[in-house]
């Protein structure tokens, strides 16, 4: 069943059963030693990965009971020192947990005054509109004590997206950025190439939401399948490896993608089966190609060159919505709308021409108040957890 189909049912539950559960939650005492990490689909991902790693690495699991709340136990992984719970058991655990961390979904129960519920947007720094600013119709989103931001630029945006007061928005950084800044090159062997470029196009068509964010209908922007041999030839000329990792929500006609000597396209599942992890691969990269995704902004922290392939920017702004009036002002790299511009970008990279370094650094200053790898530590401190 498509996610969009369930939204009407979800709104009904929020306005009926979960309103009652919010009242009940106020009456139940909380266990200061119980921590719930909750995500609504596909298992522990996004911000909860570095948060969980931080808790385990720093031995919080010896003092606290840490439970990963997931859609189904089929998404359980082998992380040691934590427990797993399915969706309905997660709701029961929420009633008792003093410390709750959300990403990519929430349990729509209002926190009690004795709980600290922290919500992380998937990519606290983002081009895309979220929550109440979208036309998807999520309904109320304010089910947390705090929501995190990466700089003051995002505070009014988040307030509008989640209909929450300013005091609930805390500028502590994005824990996902700890991965960007902590990982170093050497996760994979690409020594046979002079450069590694990773391309992470966001989805334009999603069967999950039954909507199109753009009328762009090629698997990767700018290129039809017939263009792939030429693209590979040019990459081969400069001995550059280009890996395209498609978004998990992007509609794909085939399970297997195209692979050439210097150019690969992976579906999300094929990428996982190949043994890649996106932040490890990004750490190995010399250049990132993105568009409207949060990773396009996170990569600014590496201070490496990047490009933004956005031939559909007007269409995307109209259909999905962008939080900035002038999104191109916050794109710290080549803005690419044609194949000719794409090949010019590749040539600049091959010749080590870092054309947009000053703009990249200016954008990073606007987007990120913190440029260190201590975002997880600040999030845990906000939840008043101590070893």
Binned, the helix content reads 25-40%
Name the structural class.
alpha/beta
The largest sheet has its strands arranged as 3-2-1-4-5-6-7
Q: Name the poorly predicted regions.
A: none
Largest sheet: 7 strands, parallel
> What's the CATH superfamily of the largest domain, by name?
CDP-glycerol glycerophosphotransferase, C-terminal domain
Question: What is the secondary structure topology, with strand pairs?
Answer:
Layout: H1 3-15, H2 17-27, E1 31-38, H3 48-57, E2 65-69, E3 83-85, H4 87-96, E4 97-103, E5 116-120, E6 146-149, H5 155-162, E7 169-171, H6 176-182, E8 195-199, E9 205-206, E10 211-212, H7 228-238, E11 240-245, E12 263-266, H8 268-273, H9 278-284, E13 287-290, H10 294-298, E14 306-309, H11 313-319, E15 334-336, H12 339-350, H13 357-367, H14 375-382
Parallel strand pairs: 1-2, 1-4, 2-3, 4-5, 5-6, 6-7, 8-11, 8-13, 11-12, 13-14, 14-15
Antiparallel strand pairs: 9-10
Helix pairs in contact: 3-14, 7-12
Provide a concise account of the structure shown.
The protein is α/β, with parallel strands linked by helices and 387 residues long.
């Amino acid at each position: 069943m498509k996610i969009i189909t369930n939204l009407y049912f979800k709104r009904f539950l929020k306005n009926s059963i979960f309103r009652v559960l919010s009242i009940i939650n106020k009456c139940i005492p909380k266990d200061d030693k119980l921590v719930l990490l909750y995500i609504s689909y596909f298992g522990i991902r996004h911000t909860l990965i570095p948060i969980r790693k931080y808790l385990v690495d720093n031995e919080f699991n010896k003092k606290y009971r840490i439970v990963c709340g997931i859609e189904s136990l089929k998404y359980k992984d082998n992380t040691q020192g934590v427990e797993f719970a399915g969706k309905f058991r997660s709701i029961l655990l929420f009633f008792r947990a003093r410390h709750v961390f959300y990403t990519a979904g929430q349990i729509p129960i209002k926190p009690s005054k004795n709980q600290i519920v922290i919500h992380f947007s998937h990519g606290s720094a983002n081009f895309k509109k979220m929550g109440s600013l979208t036309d998807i119709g999520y309904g109320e989103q304010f089910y947390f004590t705090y929501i995190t931001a990466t700089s003051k630029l995002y505070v009014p945006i988040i307030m509008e997206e989640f209909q929450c007061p300013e005091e609930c928005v805390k500028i502590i950084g994005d824990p996902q950025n700890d991965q960007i800044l902590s990982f170093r090159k050497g996760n994979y062997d690409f020594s046979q190439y002079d450069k590694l470029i990773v391309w992470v196009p966001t989805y334009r068509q999603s069967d999950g939401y039954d909507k199109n964010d753009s009328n762009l209908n090629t698997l990767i922007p700018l290129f039809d399948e017939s263009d792939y041999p030429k693209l590979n030839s040019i990459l081969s000329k400069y001995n550059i490896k280009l890996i395209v990792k498609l978004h998990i929500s992007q509609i794909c006609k085939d399970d297997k993608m195209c692979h050439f000597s210097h150019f690969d396209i992976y579906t999300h599942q094929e990428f996982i089966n190949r043994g890649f992890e996106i932040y490890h691969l990004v750490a190995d990269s010399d250049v990132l190609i993105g568009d409207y995704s949060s990773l396009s902004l996170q990569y600014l922290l590496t201070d490496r060159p990047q490009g933004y392939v956005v031939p559909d920017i007007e269409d995307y702004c109209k259909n999905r919505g962008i939080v900035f009036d002038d999104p191109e002002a916050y794109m710290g790299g080549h803005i690419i709308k044609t194949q000719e511009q794409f090949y010019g970008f590749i040539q600049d990279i091959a010749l080590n021409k870092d054309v947009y370094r000053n703009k990249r650094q200016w954008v990073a200053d606007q987007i990120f108040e913190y440029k260190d790898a201590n975002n997880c530590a600040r999030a845990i401190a906000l939840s008043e957890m101590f070893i």
